[in-house]
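Meet today's protein:

…
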Amino acid sequence: MSANGRNDVRLIKKYPNRRLYDTRTSSHITLADIRQLVVSEEPFQVIDAKTGEDLTRNILLQIIQEAESDGEPIFSSEMLKGIIRFYGPFQGVLTSYLEKSIQSVIEVQTQAGVQSTQAWTDFMQSQAPMMQDLMRQYVEQSKKLYLNTQNMFGIFSGFTGKTGGKKDGDEGQS
C-alpha cells in the first residue's frame, strides 16, 4: 500500500472485442457498471489490454454519450456548438470554468444532503437560465478582453471578432 493508501485503484481492461474486464472481481463489466463506479466515487482506470494505453477518458466520454442519448440530455445542441467553439485559445478558460462549476455543484449537493432528490433537480432546473446567462456574459467579456488585447498589439488588425475574416477598410466593432 502506498503512503496515501491509494493502491486501491480498480483496473479495468478493455479488450479488442470491446469487452471490459474488471481485474478486481475477475469478471466482465458494462459501461453501466463503470458509471456506477463514478457515481460511488470509486477510483478506477481503464486500459487497453493489448497496449496498456489509458482509455479512461474515452470510456467516460462513451458513458456521457450514452446518457445524452437516453432521456433528457444535459447538453443542448447550442451548448455543444459553444463547447466546440472553445477548442483553441479559450479552451483552458472553459475547462477551468466547467471543472470549478461542477465541483461547486457537487459541494453544494453534499452539504445540503440532497443528492439525487427531486428538490435538487427542481432547484437546478430553476437555476439553469440564470447560469446560462452568466456563462454567456462571461464568455462575451472574455472574448472582448482577448480581442481588445490582441488589437492593442496589432496582432489581428483587419480581423473582426464575429467571423474572423478580413474586412477591407473596416476595424471591427465591439
In short: Residues 6 and 128 are 36 Å apart (CA to CA).
